[in-house]
């Protein structure tokens, strides 16, 4: 999943508009964020840093590389993520698993077709 798709997913999970997200990053208008979301721009380091400062609950590994959960699991009660955020994390993980299963099924179907074509399987 590309970073612009992860950003869109983050905005959706936060339940805010793109404009509100941009304002939280210190942008008066949402143009830069819109361009990033549509793949016309890649986020610069300072933009990514602003996201992680504005939303400290966001997992930097997930934001940068798509690894792990969207939100950090924190041990401090005052900084703990909400049940709603945990549910969003679970929904995202299920979405990723479904994508992987579909890809595996497609690969399996292609291999089976090739095996039938070559006479290895009837």
Automatic annotation (TrEMBL):
Domain of life: Bacteria
SMART domains linked: HTH_XRE
CDD domains linked: HTH_XRE (cd00093)
Ranges for domain HTH cro/C1-type: 6-63
Name listed for the protein in its UniProt record: HTH cro/C1-type domain-containing protein
């Amino acid at each position: 999943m590309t970073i612009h798709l992860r950003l869109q997913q983050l905005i959706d999970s936060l339940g805010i508009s793109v404009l509100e997200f941009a304002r939280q990053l210190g942008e008066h208008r949402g143009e830069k964020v819109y361009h990033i979301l549509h793949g016309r721009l890649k986020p610069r380091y300072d933009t990514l840093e602003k996201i992680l400062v504005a939303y400290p609950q966001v997992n930097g590994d997930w934001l940068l590389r798509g690894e792990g959960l969207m939100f950090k699991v924190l041990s401090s009660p005052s900084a703990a993520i909400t049940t709603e955020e945990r549910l969003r994390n679970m929904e995202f993980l299920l979405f990723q698993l479904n994508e992987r299963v579909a890809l595996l099924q497609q690969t399996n179907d292609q291999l089976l077709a090739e095996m039938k074509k070559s006479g290895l399987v009837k």
